[in-house]
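Hi P.,

Sorry for the delay on this. The queue was packed all week, but I finally got your sequence through. Input first:
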Amino acid sequence: MGIVTNESEIPGRKKLTDRLYSYIQQFLYKENSKADVVGILQNVNRKNTKVVLGEKEVTWYGRHFVKEKSVNLIFRLGFLHSFK
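Then the structure:
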């Protein structure tokens, strides 16, 4: 999960992270999903532009990438990357 902010420091970040993780887990359980939370990331964008994502990423929980397999290749995809 990714959160975009315009500030680097978020007061109560640990508590927010714990709550987000708990809410996501509850949602996945209710949906009977086999998915799991890989990570919770903060992306910091202080620029006032039409571009949403900034260049700085902070991992709040877990890891900052998910592994995806395509054919016989394994890719590590992050918040800023996706398959096209």
